[in-house]
Amino acid sequence: MDQIELRWRRLRPNALLPEQQTALASGYDLHACLDEPLVLGTMPTRVPTGVAIASPAGIDVQVRPRSGLFARGVIGTVGTLDADYRGELFVTLYCLPDLGSFEITDGDRIGQIVVARLVDASWLEVEELDETVRGAGGHGSTGLR
């Protein structure tokens, strides 16, 4: 498999390179880059990483939540980093109401980047779509388990 090169820039001296925690991990952890601790509440808060990246055209770079934070009641949102974006990466986090608040400190792992190749798609308008067993069944239509 061909390796994809992502260029990155440190925007602040304490910024950390996104990194895999294990050899087979699909995501590269993003770290908070903070001068002082940040207390999250129930409103979405953008947490800085101190890092900017440049990805090649045809590459999909997504910021995703960390399951370890979710298990503790901290929700992360999904974000897409377009190939022409050169600004700082932020991870948007907030707490579930029962948790109330959660402290993030410099260097904490707050999200992850997943990198994939894009495929060009063309859109073809048709009068009808083919039938499937699921049909128009939406959320939860295939069962809860």
Notes on the structure:
Helix content is 3%, strand content 37%. It is an all-beta fold and 145 residues long. The protein has one domain: Deoxyuridine triphosphatase (dUTPase) (Deoxyuridine 5'-Triphosphate Nucleotidohydrolase, Chain A). The mean pLDDT is 92.
Summarize the helices and strands and which ones pair or pack.
Blueprint: E1 7-10, E2 27-31, E3 38-40, E4 45-54, E5 59-64, H1 67-70, E6 74-76, E7 79-81, E8 88-95, E9 102-104, E10 109-117
Antiparallel strand pairs: 1-4, 2-10, 3-9, 4-8, 5-7, 5-10, 6-8
Throw out a few tags for this protein.
Deoxyuridine 5'-Triphosphate Nucleotidohydrolase, Chain A; 145 residues; globular; four-stranded antiparallel β-sheet; mainly beta
Compute the gyration radius: what is it?
Answer: 19 Å
Number of helices: 1
Helix content: under 10%
**CATH homology superfamily:** Deoxyuridine triphosphatase (dUTPase)
Label the overall shape: globular
Count of individual beta strands: 10
**CATH C-level category:** Mainly Beta
Regarding quaternary structure, how should these chains be classified? single chain
Distance between the termini: 34 Å
Widest sheet: strand ordering? 1-4-8-6
Structural class: mainly beta
Which CATH architecture is right? Distorted Sandwich
Mean pLDDT figure:
92
Poorly predicted ranges: none
The CATH topology assignment is: Deoxyuridine 5'-Triphosphate Nucleotidohydrolase, Chain A
Content of β-strand = 35-45%
Helix and strand run: EEEEEHEEEEE
Largest sheet: 4 strands, antiparallel
